[in-house]
Design brief:
Layout (H helix, E strand, L loop, with lengths): L1 E7 L3 E5 L6 H7 L6 H17 L9 E5 L4 E6 L2 E6 L5 E10 L7 H20 L3 E3 L5
Parallel strand pairs: 1-7, 2-6
Antiparallel strand pairs: 1-2, 3-4, 4-5, 5-6
């Protein structure tokens, strides 16, 4: 499994890649003009999480999208960025983002995140995780 580093300080925030594409990064960078401030806010939040850890950022930033599946979401306005908790300093492994349209978390995104979490743990155990770092030489 290939991951892309989104933020790194004391902790590492990464996202799952699909081939050469990173859906979470695309969600943060591309979108409607009306959501640009929210997307920038999510990006800033990931930087804070990388610096302080999940336990030391405002509780209002994070919501448990599925207690049973252990999938979480970063919240900024109408936007949700799904993630699960990683291993060895990879504090958050982002999967995909959505614009919230109802009361409940997007079940397709939650299920996809749960499958990716299982794939992540398998790759971790098999030592087949690789992380792409932007501007890596």
């Amino acid at each position: 499994m290939k991951l892309k580093q989104l933020a790194c300080k004391h902790f590492e925030v990464v996202a799952v890649m699909e081939g050469d594409e990173c859906p979470a990064e695309s969600f943060l960078l591309d979108g409607e003009d009306s959501t640009e401030a929210y997307r920038l806010g999510l990006t800033d939040m990931l930087g804070e999480v990388a610096e302080k850890g999940l336990a030391n950022v405002p509780q209002s930033w994070i919501h448990e999208a599925s207690k049973k599946l252990k999938i979480y979401e970063f919240i900024k306005g109408p936007l949700r960025l799904f993630f699960f908790k990683g291993k060895n300093g990879q504090i958050a492994v982002c999967t995909t983002g959505v614009r919230k349209s109802g009361q409940k978390a997007d079940s397709a995104s939650v299920n996809k995140a749960a499958q990716l979490r299982d794939d992540y743990h398998e790759a971790f155990n098999n030592r087949t995780l690789t992380t792409v770092i932007e501007n890596e030489t």
